[in-house]
Amino acid sequence: MKGLAQFRKFDWENFSKGKTFQVTAVSNWTDHDTGKHLGRRVESVITMDTTSYEFRRGEQFTNLYEKITFKVEGGAEAPIGATVIPVEAVARCYGDYQNQLSVVCKTLRVVLQAPAAAAKGQN
Length: 123
Description:
The chain is mainly β. Helix content is 11%, strand content 44%.
């Protein structure tokens, strides 16, 4: 059968619940074929994961310290070290084992400034 992936929906709301995302890098997001600017790529790391996972065959795991990239449509500014929440995120699994995650969102909400950025704002 073909086209089955279009009927699967990743539950971003439940996946992101109990997680904290901290920015590690920001770069431009461009279309590979046309070179057109699409927005910003905000690389993050999961610094808190309280999700209760269903363990299989006795294997226990967490996504703590896993990297995750948010593709932000239009653009976003988030300083490195800031804690962010993606707004209107849509996620999908891909890859041979469906273990890769692509997340596109409208914007990022900064909920905690990076220490260096916060100090600059006080001057």
